[in-house]
Design brief:
- Helix 2 packs antiparallel against helix 3 (65-75).
- The chain is 37% helix and 26% strand.
- It folds into 3 domains: 21-92, Dna Ligase, domain 1; 96-224, D-amino Acid Aminotransferase, Chain A, domain 1 (2-Layer Sandwich); 231-378, Rossmann fold (3-Layer(aba) Sandwich), CATH 3.40.50.261.
- By secondary structure, it is of the alpha+beta class.
- The chain is built from 12 helices and 18 strands.
- It has helices at residues 5-14, 28-38, 65-75, 125-131, 149-158, 163-182, 232-239, 258-270, 287-298, 317-330, 346-355, 364-378; strands at residues 23-25, 42-47, 59-62, 79-80, 83-84, 87-92, 96-107, 112-118, 136-140, 185-196, 201-203, 206-210, 243-246, 251-255, 277-280, 305-312, 337-343, 360-361.
- The chain is elongated, with a radius of gyration of 25 Å.
- Bound molecules: guanosine-5'-diphosphate (GDP) and manganese (II) ion.
- Manganese (II) ion binds next to loops.
Length: 379
């Protein structure tokens, strides 16, 4: 789950990290008022679930409240990498002596949380990672002992920091790691972490993502969710217990079980097609659930054909067939679809479908081949 910069900053502040505290505004007038409160130069920043705001024109400096009003009105409503800006953060502008990068991620290769730091912080960090990865220094925390002090100091030395800055940097690094673990983050990042005009460390851009699988034990996290930032179909799916991930292709998939869903997407790709989504309708899919799932798949205008691949293990094929027929009675399915239905009570299920004039394909391979052809035919 993604959260906004200002929310991530509030979290990091609880861990003693000096942040540049601002005011969240939804209108240009509110931004002018906030600028007036701070007095002097302010920075106006788009609050969207996307990086690269600076490059997209979503971060502007303003000298006066009037300036702030016009900067905010430019930024509000802006589309940044597909995200519409509904809010801006207004904060006192800071003088930047130096920008560094500090982040933590779940590192599968390192089998732990890896903290990363680079002296080349700021808006070009992706390019640094790509072109000179040696400029990004890493330390992997021990799963039980955590991130040790010497690791934090080693990062600081690798950045070439003056000795008097090492202690402060190490403290912030430890705090980021602690926040990461406490919040079950997938990513926690300060970019840039700066040395301000007074030579003090300050976080001026914070980012945290929370692992969806940990939300059940993060009671406060749901309050941080901003539904305006999320894919509408994914939101509906989550509310009904269906795992749905939107993808870029044109073949809609409705499958039961995460493993079978993955295998189905592989089979589609193997035959030269591209899945439009991952959808796991769940182990015990009821008629209602199937109707809902089919609605979700068809809600995407890019979908040119649908593959329904159900293995009746806990779910009985006749129940699934009933659900499918009920769903198709309610929804006008305008695109071609291919059904493969095997497992418990498959004969009954297949008969119900064929009585209704729907052909059922026997193997997954054949089903994938047919749906790819159908998508090409109707594209
Ligand atoms: P991002 O582009 O989405 O990563 O947004 P950031 O919040 O990191 O802002 C982009 C860049 O704007 C930063 O890397 C800074 O160089 C600059 N910036 C942000 N806030 C201030 C500020 O208060 N003063 C100055 N001088 N620059 C700022
Ligand atoms: Mn940034």
């Amino acid at each position: 789950m993604n959260i906004h910069e200002y929310q991530a900053a509030e979290i990091l502040k609880q861990y003693g990290i000096p942040i540049n505290e601002g005011i969240v505004c939804e209108t240009a007038d509110a931004a002018a008022e906030a600028a007036g409160k701070f007095g002097g130069k302010v920075v106006i920043k788009a609050q969207v679930h996307s990086g690269g705001r600076g490059k997209a024109g979503g971060v502007k400096l303003a000298e006066s409240p009037d300036d702030a009003r016009s900067a905010a009105s430019d930024i509000l409503g802006m589309d940044i990498n597909g995200h519409i800006v509904n809010m801006v953060l207004v904060a006192p502008a800071v003088d930047i002596q130096r920008e560094v990068y500090l982040g933590a991620v779940v590192d599968r290769d390192g089998r732990g949380v890896t903290v990363m730091a680079s002296a080349e912080g700021g808006v070009e960090i992706e390019e640094v990672a790509r072109e000179s990865p040696e400029k990004i220094h890493t330390e992997t925390a021990h799963p039980h002992l955590g991130l040790r002090d010497y690791q934090c100091r080693r990062l600081a030395f690798n950045l070439g920091l003056d000795p008097e800055l090492v202690g402060g940097f190490a403290k912030i690094t430890r705090a980021v790691h602690k926040a990461f673990v406490d919040y079950d983050a997938g990513l926690a990042e300060i970019n840039p972490l700066i040395l301000n005009g007074d030579g003090e460390w300050q976080a001026i851009d914070s980012k945290i993502t929370i692992d969806d699988n940990a939300l059940y034990r993060q009671p406060g996290a749901e309050e941080l969710r901003d539904l305006r930032e999320e894919n509408e179909i994914e939101v509906q799916a989550r509310a009904s217990g269906i795992s749905f991930v939107k993808l870029d292709g044109n073949i809609g998939c409705m499958v039961n079980g995460a493993g079978l869903s993955m295998a189905t997407m592989d089979a589609i790709k193997f035959h030269g097609g591209e899945p439009a989504n991952f959808l796991d309708v769940g182990g015990g899919a009821s008629a209602d659930q199937v109707t809902l799932a089919l609605n979700l798949v068809l809600a995407e205008p890019d979908v040119k054909a649908v593959l329904i691949n159900i293995f009746g293990g806990i779910t009985r094929c006749d129940v699934v067939a009933e659900g499918l027929l009920e769903a198709m009675g309610k929804i006008n399915v305008e695109v071609p679809f291919v059904i493969r239905l095997i497992g418990t009570n498959q004969a009954e299920g297949q008969k119900m479908l064929s009585d209704a004039g729907i052909t059922v394909v026997e193997t997954m391979d054949e089903a994938a081949k047919q749906v790819v052809a159908a998508a090409e035919g109707s594209a």
